[in-house]
Each structure stands twice: as C-alpha cells, then as structure tokens.
# Entry
Amino acid sequence: MKSKLNRSLKNRSLHGVCGGIAEYIGLYPIAVRLVFIIALPISLLLYIFLANILDSESPSL
# Structure
C-alpha cells in the first residue's frame, strides 16, 4: 500500500513538494524538479497550489 502524498522533509529545495512527489512515485527528486522546470508556466501554479495543500511529512524519531 502506498503512503500518503506529503511534502518531504529530507528532499526539499523550497517547500519539499517535488521531493514528496518523488518519494511517492519512487523517482529521484531531481527528475521531478526537471519536469517542473520544463513545464514552467503551468507547473508554477501547480507547485504553489501543492505547497499550500499538502501536509508536511511527520518527522521520524
């Protein structure tokens, strides 16, 4: 069973959205960031939306 989509605490540049997506899908975070850069006009709006909607990953002890 897949875990819930969260913002990443480990792989974060700004808010951890791309890192969270990469962990959820199972890709490298740089690959997700490149996709966001290539599709910049629409992905910027999507990134802002996801940064506000997604919960932060709970820190592990």
Summary: Helices lie at 17-25, 29-38, 40-53. The chain is about 55% helix and 0% strand. The mean pLDDT is 81. The radius of gyration is 11 Å.
